[in-house]
Specification:
single chain, alpha/beta, Rossmann fold, 6-stranded mixed β-sheet, globular
Length: about 230
């Protein structure tokens, strides 16, 4: 599903955020990405959906080499990748239903199909009854559920979650994890960058640890491995 071969990323300020990443992630895997702030986790995540382009090396996602595709092909690539952000990134003037439907409208899906898929994902995240509300009428946890629903409405093979529980209280964080687990159980690959030690140590999955732009640990059913 995902392969990084000798991937390097040096920013203009000289920071080497990726120093020889070599990773192979299979379809259907759930992978935590952990490490200190500034270690290179965000670069690792963003390179998978071409928000960041590597300085050197190959990144192959679902058979496409992201290091070599033209910029004009990037939007098409992202239609097959769901991304969940820490700060939700919902459109404030659109209802919950409209926020999710927008992802299907841009690819000109049929209205009947849009309605079915939007209501299906709203049911999965437990918000079918709030479809007509605006984002500011929901709690932070509910907004994150909407963000997840939006990320999977295209039935992507890959979901990338960047600190999806970072702004949430502990109870709500577990609710979000249960949804991500359900998505993974359906065969979707889930890559989750997180600082949540308790979640990583309780719900066991593969752990990739990054420090100073290097992968220092890659363990099946690993622990968080850092204090705090």
């Amino acid at each position: 599903m995902i392969e990084m071969k000798d991937v390097y990323k040096q920013y203009n300020n000289g920071v080497m955020a990726a120093n020889g990443f070599n990773v192979h992630i299979k379809q259907g895997e759930f992978v935590y990405v952990v490490g200190p702030s500034g270690a290179g986790k965000t670069t690792f995540i963003k390179m998978m959906y071409r928000e960041v382009k590597p300085s050197k090396g190959d990144i192959i996602v679902n058979g496409i080499n992201l290091a070599k595709i033209r910029n004009g092909k990037v939007p098409q690539l992202r239609r097959n990748i769901g991304v969940v952000f820490q700060d939700f990134k919902l459109l404030p003037t659109l209802t919950i239903y409209e926020n999710i439907a927008f992802a299907l409208e841009v690819i000109e899906e049929q209205p009947k199909q849009i309605k079915k898929r939007v209501m299906d994902v709203l049911e999965l995240v437990g918000l079918k009854h709030k479809a007509r509300m605006l984002p500011n009428e929901l709690s932070g946890g509910e907004q994150q559920r909407v963000s997840i629903a939006r990320s999977i409405v295209n039935t992507p093979k890959l979901v990338i979650a960047d600190e999806p529980t970072g702004n949430l209280d502990p109870e709500t964080s577990w609710d979000i994890m249960n949804i991500l687990e359900e998505i993974a159980n359906r065969g979707t690959t889930v890559i989750m960058a997180t600082h949540n030690r308790e979640i990583v140590n309780t719900i066991k999955h593969r752990v990739i640890a990054i420090e100073n732009g290097r992968i220092v640990r890659d363990e099946q059913r690993g622990d968080y491995g850092y204090e705090g």
